[in-house]
Design goal:
The chain is mainly α. Helices cover 63% and strands 2% of the residues. The radius of gyration is 46 Å and the shape is elongated.
């Protein structure tokens, strides 16, 4: 044998890089590796970054700051399935961070991840498909929280693959898909589109899942999409109610009861569904569940469902037949504030049914009155609103509310900070005020003082209800006095300026009622009511029947203004001393007072006619004092002058006789010679005596601390009235009085305007 020759080892090729195992302890180094062309490097790099990002939110932000997001997103569409899978996992887990989501929106990644939801179509890639579906859908879940991303996912056709993945064998894929759908259907466009994609059957199938989170998300999604009536019909046709009631009847599923009830509550809005549930005994079961449930959230949602269902008249009838009122009254006694509010709101809705109103009134009014004293103002508002609906057009319930001692707590609610509570309390008190004994009781509790604050509210509903309450209470003189003394007239008059038709109408109504007495009418005139009402009534769009009536009511206590403005007085307007005829005023022109007119210089304008047939008390006292002094200086004489006698007799008559109407002129009329009078003998030609002229001139008397302006007195008018009264008042009938006046005073009547004569006759008959 020949000698063996040792085989030489061939050296490695010079152009081949020897394998190198790299161990990196810095994330930045791995991020740099994402640009490698080697698939093995990319596999391990993405896997390492996934484990790093999984440890916490800070790590996700670190990767973002290192610039890892953009190269990772490019790898999501890599040719190698493992690279594609690992990159999707990293981006999916990072997307939970808000800053990462913001960057993903800028990269417009939704279309790429929607594409990842489609199956590869190859069995060997089944595992890769499931993982990619899980993390792609997870990324879309995080993205779909923001509105713009929802729109993008919808417009790019993301709903259909998500619905298909509801049937995935992987629970994580199911969970992510249903959660993403839940986020998307918050928008009405997605709700309408998803109905056409037949989403109800797979969602109902998810209710059988072994994972509570999947069941819960499915119920939440059903709760959103069944807001639409068409979807509720599809749910009913797919026996969805059976699935829901099975959950409600299973105690182990009590963590799902609230959401299941939400879906049932939506379905109860349809009369057909309500009838179906009633016929199958489901409605009675539901009410029984509600009463005995230990979950406050369940009871609250049940009451809300009843309130929504009660919006339909047929549903209210069915609910009343099932004695829903007893259930709601039971809920009023729970410890949970939200349940009390929801139950009160349901009672308010059910009150549209008369039978329900009667049942609740007999059983539930005391509980509602108790809630008015709650520390929670939202509870007060709900209870007061329920009482409004219970007492509207129902005297028996009004009496029941009063018997429950509700007046004082209702008045206290007027000072609440919640506008709804204040408005409802005012409405309840208005309903109670329809009964006179209750109105007096309300007034005795200081209602008019309490209503001033609501009148100053900036909320139009509160303003309207408060003004209406004042209109209901203002028919009592004591109430008007209290409103005036508490400063309520000014804010009431300000409401006349409101641009809200209802507020303005109710304010006019209240002004009309409160103007029944002279002091209140004068105060409202002082704060501008007359000017505002005149302005309103000149506007075709703003005036109303109450504004016209309110203006007339105020003018009835200001006859000079009424006569100058309207040109006539009604039969109920009695002219008294102080009335003056200024002449017709133009719209918007201010009528000056007598004192202002008397300060003007004499001019060639029309004379202003004043009626003043009675000396003021100050003038009478001054006149008597002067006469006493005159008598002292002429005590040696046996008598006094005829004029003094006449003045003394006139003053005595004035003291004995009540105020009489009449008219005189501030200009020459008061110094006019007396005309011939039938039965007096020959005509007197003498001029008026000096003392009569003095009486017909306005005076300014100075008293301690102030200056008083005294209007002029007309002695001639006084003589007219005295003789007319002596002549016609003894006659038995009005007709004889009118005829006698016409026959006996033809000459003198020419000096007195016709409307004065009418008032003289009417005053005499009164």
């Amino acid at each position: 044998m020949g000698k063996k020759i040792k085989k030489e080892v061939e050296p490695p090729p010079k152009d081949v890089f020897d394998p190198l195992s790299v161990e990196s302890k810095k994330a930045a180094t791995v991020v740099l590796m994402l640009s490698s062309p080697e698939e093995e490097v990319l596999h391990k790099g993405c896997e390492a970054l996934y484990k790093f990002a999984l440890k916490g939110e800070e790590n996700k932000l670190t990767l973002l700051e290192l610039g890892a997001l953009e190269p990772l997103f490019k790898l999501v569409t890599h040719e190698d399935p493992i690279v594609r899978r690992n990159a999707t996992m990293v981006v999916g887990i990072m997307a939970s961070h808000n800053d990462v989501k913001k960057s993903l929106r800028q990269l417009d990644v939704t279309s790429a991840f929607i594409a990842r939801l489609a199956p590869e179509g190859n069995l060997q890639h089944l595992f890769e498909d499931v993982v990619i579906h899980e993390f792609a859908s997870l990324c879309l879940v995080h993205m779909s929280v923001e509105y713009n991303s929802k729109v993008q996912i919808f417009e790019q056709g993301g709903l259909e693959p998500l619905i298909r993945l509801l049937g995935s064998p992987d629970p994580d894929v199911k969970k992510n898909s249903v959660e993403c759908i839940y986020n998307l259907v918050q928008d009405f466009q997605s709700r309408a589109a998803i109905r056409e994609l037949n989403v109800i059957p797979p969602l109902l199938e998810l209710l059988k899942s072994d994972y509570p989170v999947i069941q819960l998300l499915s119920l939440k999604t059903l709760g959103i999409i069944t807001i639409d009536r068409e979807t509720r019909v599809i749910l009913r046709e797919n026996q969805g109610l059976d699935h829901l009631f099975k959950i409600l009847e299973t105690k182990e599923f009590n963590d799902l009861h609230v959401e299941a009830l939400g879906v049932v509550g939506n379905c109860l809005e349809d009369v057909d569904t309500m009838q179906l549930i009633q016929q199958t005994g489901g409605l009675r079961k539901l009410l029984a569940f509600t009463e005995v449930s230990t979950l406050p959230e369940f009871q609250k949602n049940a009451a809300k469902a009843i309130a929504k269902a009660a919006a339909d008249p047929e549903n209210r009838k069915i609910l009343n037949e099932q004695e829903v009122e007893k259930c709601l009254i039971t809920l009023l006694g729970t410890d949970n504030e939200g349940t009390k509010i929801a139950a009160s709101q349901a009672i308010s809705a059910m009150c549209e049914n008369l039978a329900s109103k009667q049942t609740t009134g007999a059983l539930g009014i005391p509980q509602l009155v108790q809630l008015l004293s709650s520390e929670n103002e939202e509870v007060k508002e709900a209870a007061a609103t329920a009482l409004v609906n219970l007492t509207t057009a129902h005297p028996a319930n009004v009496s029941a509310v009063a018997e429950s001692d509700a007046i004082e707590p209702l008045i206290s609610v007027l000072s609440c900070k919640r506008d709804g509570a204040v408005a409802s309390a005012a409405s309840v008190l208005t309903n109670l005020a329809m009964q006179e004994p209750l109105r007096l009781s309300i007034q005795s509790h200081g209602f008019m003082t309490a209503i001033v604050e609501p009148l100053n509210s900036t909320n139009s509903i509160v303003q309207s209800r408060a003004a209406l309450a004042v209109a209901a209470m203002g028919c009592d003189a004591e109430a008007r006095t209290e409103l005036r003394n508490s400063g309520g007239l000014e804010p009431l008059v300000k409401l006349l300026h409101s641009k809200n038709d209802e507020v303005r109408r109710n304010a006019c109504w209240a002004v009309m009622v409160c103007a029944s007495d002279e002091l209140t009418a004068a105060e409202m005139t002082r704060v501008g009511a007359l000017d505002i009402l005149n302005e309103i009534n000149l506007s075709i769009g703003r005036k109303n029947n109450f504004s016209e009536a309110a203006l007339e009511k105020i003018l009835d206590h200001n006859l000079p203004q009424k006569y100058s403005q309207l040109g006539f007085l009604t039969s109920s307007n009695i002219i008294l001393d102080g009335f003056y005829d200024f002449g017709q005023v133009k719209p918007g022109e201010k009528l000056l007072s007598l004192e202002e007119l008397c300060t003007q210089k004499l001019n060639d304008h029309r004379a202003i006619i004043l009626i003043n047939s009675k000396l003021s008390e100050i003038e009478q006292a001054t006149s008597i004092s002067v006469e006493e002094k005159a008598q002292d200086t002429t005590s040696s004489k046996t008598g006094v002058s005829a004029s003094s006698n006449r003045r003394g007799s006139r003053n005595n008559s004035l003291e004995d006789k009540p105020e009489s109407p009449g008219r005189s002129s501030i200009s020459k009329g008061s110094s006019r010679e007396k005309g011939s009078r039938k039965g007096r003998g020959k005509k007197e030609e003498e001029k008026p005596k000096e003392e009569d002229l003095e009486l017909s001139v306005p005076k300014i008397l100075e008293t301690p601390g102030k200056v008083l302006w005294i209007p002029p007195f007309d002695p001639i008018l006084f003589d007219y009235i005295t003789e007319v009264s002596r002549t016609i008042l003894p006659l038995p009938t009005s007709k004889e009085q009118v005829v006698a006046l016409a026959q006996s005073w033809q000459t003198e009547l020419l000096l007195i305007p016709a409307y004065i004569v009418v008032n003289i006759i009417e005053h005499g008959m009164r």
